[in-house]
Inverse folding.
């Protein structure tokens, strides 16, 4: 079973920042927070991952709270193509990914 | 650099038949994973190879499913005999060995058993 909690759906206006929250209160010391997304029926796409420091790449930013029990994925300027289901996953090492239901993000024009 | 490749992209077979799905991981990736999503359900893990060895096959639903990874390169997933409940999308992913690396997914094989 997935060990993270995410809202089932969110809406965002095109061009605005999308902030997707995730609770992972049971995270252990060796687990990272990973974010993936699935656009329509395509294969899941890696977005970003982090341990305890905030991370940023060309796709998004990841903000992890100091106690590591929650995080927020930020898409700074959402576009229509960012409409997808976003998954927050805790994972250690080369372990498998455990997908939950994720958050369905709809970016509106 | 080529990504993870899966084929066929679609397969429609009759109940009782055999189907073999293939996955070509990114070159140099020792980790290879199979996942599947059945209609209306979440994506579920099936198994994990490290090179040619099965590291974790705890997600394999039953003995009708057989996965192999020849020489640590491509992998096949055979379903024999196929049942209606095997219908879904099968995803393959690969990642580099060691550390906390990201896994890259293929586009999946949509299997329909009729």
């Amino acid at each position: 079973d997935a060990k993270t909690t995410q809202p089932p759906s969110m809406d965002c206006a095109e061009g605005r920042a999308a902030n997707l929250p995730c609770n992972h209160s049971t995270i252990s010391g060796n687990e990272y927070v990973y974010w993936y997304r699935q656009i329509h029926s395509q294969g899941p796409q890696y977005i970003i991952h982090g341990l305890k420091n905030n991370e940023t790449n060309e796709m998004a930013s990841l903000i992890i709270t100091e106690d590591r029990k929650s995080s927020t994925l930020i898409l700074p300027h959402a576009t229509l193509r960012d409409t997808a289901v976003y998954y927050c996953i805790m994972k250690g090492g080369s372990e498998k990914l455990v997908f939950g239901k994720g958050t369905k993000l709809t970016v509106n024009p | 650099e080529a990504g993870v490749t899966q084929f066929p992209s679609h397969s429609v077979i009759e109940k009782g038949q055999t189907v073999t799905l293939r996955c070509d991981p990114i070159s140099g990736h020792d980790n290879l994973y199979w996942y599947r999503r059945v209609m209306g359900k979440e994506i579920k893990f099936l198994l994990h190879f490290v090179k040619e060895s099965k590291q974790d096959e705890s997600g394999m639903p039953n003995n009708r499913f057989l996965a192999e990874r020849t020489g640590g390169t491509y992998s096949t997933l055979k379903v024999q005999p196929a049942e209606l409940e095997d219908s879904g999308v099968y995803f393959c992913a690969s990642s580099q060995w060691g550390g906390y690396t990201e896994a890259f997914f293929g586009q999946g094989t949509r299997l329909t058993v009729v």
